[in-house]
Amino acid sequence: MTQETQADQASTSDDLDGLFVVSLEQAVAAPYASSRLADAGARVVKVERPEGDFARRYDSYVNGESAYFVWLNRGKESIALDLRNDADRAVLERMIARADVFIQNLAPGAVERLGFDPEALRAKNPRLIVCSISGYGDEGPYRDLKAYDLLVQAESGLSEVTGAGEARARTGVSVCDIAAGMTAFQSILQALIGRSVTGRGRHVKVSLFHALTDWMNVPYLQYAYGGHKPARCGLHHPTIAPYGDYACGDGKSVLFSIQNETEWSNLCALVLENPDLARDPRFATNTLRTQNREALDAAISAVFSRLDRDAVIARLEAARVAYGRVSDLDDLLRHPQNRYVEVATPAGPVRMLAPGARIDDAPARLGPVPALDEHGPALRREFGG
Asked: How many CA atoms lie within 13 A of 244 on its CB side?
């Protein structure tokens, strides 16, 4: 590796070096956005209430620390401010005056009542980018509703298309919060690019509901234009068959996908060892296979139940059919494809799964997770007037 390449790789976590972000944040969505800015080298000050971000107490599974908090708060400075107190409000005001980005996800109207109306802040600092994250946005009849992840999963229709049969199910991670955090992050980056051209900031508004309903466009369009209501199919695709999970003889499951008729023929001939099945009129097209899913699944399960999972996978690979093992958390813990990063926390170092993007093959360099108000004294000296 050349010295130039080494230098390039060493700088990939410093793309936003010099950017100052103040985030009045709690829970998941806003901390997700600010953590990604911190990962990219921005200086991020996390403003917490005196008792701390309540996500610190969501659980205590990571050596006494919250898994949520450890995941979403690396690389930040923490200051605890009581914004009912004039002196603490003045500290925040002085920080925002020097900030490039101000993120907040307080309850609707709360930030304005505290004296930090986004438009007034931008009038004082035209280069400031403000990102406000809410449950339902700042207009419409639901603007003042409290919004937590599972509530929005239900309200957005996600739970209607998730689960099996009559049973709706929660998506297993905080998908609405994460969707909002990802949308906020990409919108802030877009605003930074825009500011580099115009010299002016902007007010980015993101809501959990709208971030997730954007992801709901496929079932929305299918229903709005075609009258099609996707069925809850568990680990089976609602409109493609066979595309789902099947139990093998050893009790383990494999999920595979057929995308075209060539793959269907190969599955029948090489995996099921029944080439005549490909010509069965019940299964001649994807539409027919979906309509006759029960009979199709029975034919597949009759073969898979006689083989252990490794043997099924060997046949799927020979047929060049895409598959995935249905992993439990123990499988994930030991998955051979995992990448890891180590992050310092108040309770000691923690190894966690690495961020999804890798830039120039350089390992991610992530800052430590702060203790509550760990940087408060230094920040008060820096911004104390």
From this structure: 23
Give the pair of three-digit tokens for residue 326: 């249905």
Give the amino acid at 57: R
Active site residue 236: no
CB-based contacts of 182, cutoff 8 Å, min separation 6:
32, 33, 211
Kindly report, residue by residue over 93-104, the tens digit of the pLDDT: 999 999 999 999
How many angstroms separate the CA atoms of 104 and 33, rounded? 11
Residue type, 85: N
Q: pTM for the full model?
A: 0.87
Which is the catalytic residue, given 210, 236, 237, 335? 237
How far apart are the C-alpha atoms of 306 and 302, rounded to whole Å? Answer: 7
* Structure tokens that stand for 182 in this block: 């990802």
With 0-12 CB in 10 A as exposed, 13-18 as middle and 19+ as buried, what is 79? buried
Rg value, the chain, Cα? 25
Q: Crossing angle, helix 217-226 and helix 208-215, to 10 degrees?
A: 60
Please report the domains of the chain, with CATH numbers, ordered by start residue.
3-216+338-383 (3.40.50.10540), 243-325 (3.30.1540.10)
